[in-house]
Write a structure and sequence with these properties.
The chain has 1 helix and 34 strands. It is mainly beta. Strand 15 and strand 16 (189-194) form a beta hairpin. The longest helix is centred in the N-terminal third of the chain and has 4 residues, at 51-54.
């Protein structure tokens, strides 16, 4: 039986749709350009689609002999015409995730035509969700992370400085977990490595100043790290030695790329940096944690207690978005990746609940910000009143007012609820 997958890519003036029919050995991408900024074309009856959207030209490209399950589109370069398409397949086994060799395609005419450049990455498996990293300082510079093969203890990456025209392989001296480029210095990268035997809880932090050619170990026992608002500022949480409380961490800050650092807090449970805000879950007793927030652009960096309406013991939380000082955060109130979304005032201090039954599976999230439509977000919630053998159904929700109010995402003739089963 053939199955059909659609991938919608919404840009400022562009919508891409990719189709996969599993019974055939090719993918088809149809690209539709539109002069209507932010107009999301839906599978609606023809009479309900705006005329400006119906009359735009459509282009089609067939990926011959392409049998992977998923296509991932990435806009790169500075001319808005270069597109990379990564084709991947991932299977869950008793040994974990199994990645098959990926395919890589490149277009230089806005997606009308593609060339197969898989040989540039040696047919290595590239992880779909975290394997393509574009530099925020230079969109021509991209890193592709090869998935670890069973039995290998060191990672390797592929880098390009010319938007994918040519690639270089770099073998890393460590087992890579995550890699984050500097937002202002394109050649500076931070990467953490898992220490075998710790279950990935403690790692070592490495830094490169030559775009991955050489690496220097800068800190051990690292739990997580974030770039700060300035190019040379990094925040790191490390294991706090000598504390009686379990899982207590120490928050460190360096403003000179690890030449020196200072302690910000030594009673930390978890922290997140998003734009100019730092959010920290801090121990007050052995069983009580409270959420604090501070502005990083303020000289004193004074922490304020985040005022949540239902609970002050925010242990596990995720910052989903920060816009104009207003924060959207997920707080686990039900456990196991389910909780509520809270929205703050412009100071990111006072919060109100915006959405219940929100799904957040660790670092993986179905929370998407529609860049071409200001204040628009799409996410997923569980529907307890619709149980299945696999658990509750997962439905899509959309907000058009910065996350303050949420509604069903219309499908099937622009009516109804978009429901799908989510698997971790």
């Amino acid at each position: 039986m053939s199955s059909l997958f659609r991938l919608y890519f919404v840009g400022i003036n562009l919508l891409c749709v990719s189709l996969l029919v599993s019974s055939s050995r090719h993918h088809v991408i149809r690209k539709r350009t539109s002069t209507v900024s932010g107009e999301l074309l839906k599978e609606c009856p023809k009479e309900t689609v705006p005329r400006a959207a119906r009359d735009v030209p459509t282009y089609q490209f067939t990926f011959d002999n392409e049998v992977h399950q998923a296509l991932n589109l990435h806009w790169v370069g500075t001319n808005s015409k270069t597109v990379l398409v990564l084709s991947t397949t991932t299977a869950l086994t008793i040994f974990g995730r199994l990645h098959t060799p990926s395919s890589l395609w490149r277009s230089v005419d806005g997606g009308r035509h593609y060339n197969n450049i898989t040989s540039e990455i040696g047919s290595d498996p590239i992880t779909a969700d975290t394997g393509v990293i574009r530099s925020p300082a230079d969109p021509n510079m991209i890193v592709m992370v090869a998935a670890l093969v069973l039995g290998k203890h060191q990672s390797h990456i592929y880098v390009t400085r010319n938007a994918g025209e040519s690639w270089s392989r770099i073998d890393l001296p460590f087992r890579l977990v995550s890699l984050i480029p500097n937002s202002a210095k394109a050649n500076v990268l931070l990467a953490d490595s898992a220490v075998e035997g710790t279950g990935g809880k403690n790692g070592t932090l490495y830094m490169s100043v030559d775009y991955g050619k050489t690496w220097r170990l800068v800190m051990a026992n690292v739990e997580r790290f974030f770039w700060g608002p300035k190019p040379d500022t990094v925040f790191v949480s490390v294991a706090s030695v000598g504390k009686n409380k379990a899982n207590v961490l120490k928050l460190l800050r360096t403003d000179d790329l690890f030449n020196t650092y200072k302690v910000v807090n030594d009673e930390l449970y978890r922290f997140v940096v998003e734009k100019n805000f730092l959010y920290a879950s801090v121990y007050e007793t052995e069983t009580t944690r409270r959420l604090y927030v501070t502005r990083l652009d303020h000289p004193s960096m004074k922490f304020q207690l985040a005022r949540l309406p239902e609970t002050q013991t925010a242990g596990v939380f995720y910052v989903l978005d920060v816009t104009d000082g207003m924060s959207l955060i997920h707080v686990d109130t039900a456990g196991k990746g389910q909780g509520s979304i809270f929205i703050s005032d412009s100071s990111s201090t006072y919060f109100t609940k915006a959405l219940d039954n929100h799904v957040q599976l660790g670092k993986r999230s179905d929370f998407y910000k529609v860049l071409s439509m200001r204040g628009t977000f799409i996410t997923s919630v569980t529907v307890p009143e619709l149980p299945t053998l696999l658990g509750s159904l997962v439905a899509s929700r959309i907000s058009f007012d910065n996350g303050a109010r949420w509604q069903k995402l219309a499908v099937d003739g622009c009516k109804g609820d978009a429901v799908s089963v989510s698997t971790p």
